[in-house]
Amino acid sequence: MARIAEAAVRLNRSTVPAGKLYPFGGFVDIGPVAKAPALAIILWRMGPGAVFPPHDHDPVDVVTLCLEGSCRAHHFEIEGPRPPHESRERFTLRQTLDLHMTPGRCSSLTRTRDYIHTFQAGPQGVLALDINTSLPGKGSFSFLDIQTEAVDAGQRLFKGNWKAL
Ligand SMILES: [Fe+2]
User: Fold this and answer.
1) Which of 36, 114, 129, 146 has the greatest number of C-beta atoms within 10 Å?
2) Per-residue DSSP letter, 15
3) CATH number at residue 10
4) Spacing, Cα 56 to ligand 1 middle (Å)
5) Of 58, 35, 47, 45, which Cα lies nearest the Cα of 131?
């Protein structure tokens, strides 16, 4: 993961293929630019102020690299056991990262660290690259609702629940 992030931040922007992006969810245009066993590289673009809702990536590790524009990245972890995606019960999340991403900056997540993330595009929008490393195990993915008001601001604790988009 660290070596992928290290390589990502040294990436020459002009070498990234344009890719074919497809609208998804009304907030992002997204599409693959390269796939190889255990690796998928996904390009995504959002307009000014658009929000990529919070979601997890189990069992995938992800490095997100900002290529153009800017965005705010927030990462979270669930306090206690991770409820199944089918559950609609509310649980507590801790915000673990709050990053202002500009070209050349990256954020990352693993199955056990910072594994829920959300992005809000800056005033010029954002173009970013996700480098996904697939890990053994059954694939699973869900969006979440996370309350904007913290239940404990000092500890960065929030309430949330899994949801379909
Ligand atoms: Fe993601």
Assistant:
1) 129
2) G
3) 2.60.120.10
4) 7
5) 35
